From TrEMBL:
Protein name: MerR family transcriptional regulator
Transmembrane parts of this sequence: none
GO MF annotations in UniProt: DNA binding; DNA-binding transcription factor activity
Stretches the record annotates as Disordered: 114-134
Length: 134
């Protein structure tokens, strides 16, 4: 996809088109939950002249990401950290450069777990990821 197409696609995805009721149906979140995530600056919906929230497709994607993380047991502090990392220029550059495949990610995690076991210390991720290696 050319640069213009990417820019045009991103512009469409960021357009505030969806009212709260539609976003609630799409995400299966309550209005209260959505407002809570807004209060924590995880989403920034556009406000109409009548002060109604209007959401973009990017906002819906963000809400679905938050919902997935909560279902996986990540708390709000963890979710905020993930979103802060996503905004970090170094992380963005690494993502743009190359996405890790699932097999590469598993290899890195296995190596980290081996090193941690050799030092008799739990890996930082071991508690969270042990469910994948049972």
């Amino acid at each position: 996809m050319g640069r213009e197409n990417r820019r045009s696609s991103e512009l469409r995805r960021s357009m505030p088109l969806l009212p709260m009721s539609t976003v609630m149906q799409l995400t299966e979140l309550s209005a209260r939950q959505i407002r809570y995530y807004e209060e924590h600056d995880l989403i920034q919906p556009h406000r109409t002249e009548g002060n109604r929230r209007m959401f973009s497709l990017n906002d819906v994607d963000t809400l679905l990401d938050i919902k997935d993380m909560l279902e996986q047991g990540v708390n709000m502090a963890g979710i905020k950290k993930v979103f802060d990392m996503k905004k970090n220029p170094a992380v963005l550059a690494a993502q743009a450069k190359q996405e890790l495949s699932d097999s590469e990610l598993r290899k890195v995690l296995r190596e980290e777990m081996k090193m941690a076991q050799g030092q008799q210390k739990p890996s930082l991720r071991q508690g969270d990821l042990s469910r994948f290696y049972q």
